[in-house]
Each structure stands twice: as structure tokens, then as C-alpha cells.
């Protein structure tokens, strides 16, 4: 059974690109356009890992991660931040909120896949 990844990003281009990469690697993919949409998709699917942007309308990635981590059912779900925000304070905030990995866009697809497989234990 393939692992299910939720991609949360307000950029349709980024969502489609990351989804393409993940599907090519054999993962099942669900996409969401912001944190609110991401929560809805998380609650209605069995998600194994989340990839989230930071800057999004309606609900940003940091708020999204905080809400996910506050729920017992998702406290151990791996979260990867994929953002253009690469300053130390942003990375620190993402990690402090409970992200397992923080990648700065544009991330190398090979590196992203290796890290995701490691977080999912599918190496």
C-alpha cells in the first residue's frame, strides 16, 4: 500500500510540480490550496505525511502546523515545510511548531524524495 502525502500550497504550479514528483515516486497524493483546505483534506483522508508552504491566504502554514500538532491523532504525522521563507527565524519557528524538516524553495527533487522516504521509513 502506497503512502499518502498531503501537499498544502497556494501556488497551483508548486502543488502540481510536487504532486508530480511524489506520484512518480509511487506515493498517493492529495493537494490543498491553503491551511483551511489542508485541515479539511487531512480530516477526510488517511494522510501519512504533510508537505506545507508557509505563506498562504486564509490560514498560513505555521498556524496550520500548530493546529495539526495540537491534535492527538496527528501528533506523530511527519510534516515537511517547503517555503521560500529561508531565514533562520522562519526555519526555527517551523521546527518549534513541530515540523520534522524545513526545505527552502526551490528544493532539489532528489533531496526532497530522500528526506520524505526517510521520514516515512520507506528507504
UniProtKB/TrEMBL annotation:
InterPro entries: Bact_response_regulator (IPR050595), CheY-like_superfamily (IPR011006), Sig_transdc_resp-reg_receiver (IPR001789)
Keyword annotations from UniProtKB, A to Z: Phosphoprotein
Gene3D superfamilies, alphabetized: 3.40.50.2300
GO biological process: phosphorelay signal transduction system
Pfam families: Response_reg
Location of the Response regulatory domain: 4-120
Matching SUPFAM superfamilies: CheY-like (SSF52172)
Claim: Transmembrane is one of the keywords in the record: no
PTM-bearing positions, type 4-aspartylphosphate: 53
PANTHER family attached to this UniProt entry: CHEMOTAXIS TWO-COMPONENT RESPONSE REGULATOR, STRESS RESPONSE REGULATOR PROTEIN 1
Name of this protein: Response regulator receiver protein
Amino acid at each position: 500500500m502506497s503512502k499518502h502525502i498531503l501537499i498544502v500550497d497556494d501556488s497551483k504550479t508548486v502543488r502540481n510540480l510536487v504532486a508530480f514528483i511524489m506520484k512518480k515516486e509511487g506515493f498517493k497524493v492529495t493537494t490543498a490550496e491553503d491551511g483551511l483546505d489542508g485541515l479539511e483534506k487531512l480530516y477526510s483522508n488517511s494522510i501519512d505525511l504533510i508537505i506545507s508552504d508557509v505563506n498562504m491566504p486564509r490560514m498560513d502554514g505555521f498556524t496550520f502546523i500548530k493546529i495539526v500538532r495540537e491534535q492527538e491523532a496527528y501528533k506523530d504525522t511527519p510534516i515537511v515545510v517547503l517555503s521560500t521563507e529561508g531565514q533562520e527565524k522562519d526555519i526555527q519557528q517551523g521546527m518549534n511548531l513541530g515540523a520534522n524538516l524545513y526545505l527552502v524553495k526551490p528544493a532539489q527533487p532528489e533531496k526532497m524524495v530522500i528526506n520524505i522516504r526517510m521520514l516515512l521509513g520507506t528507504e
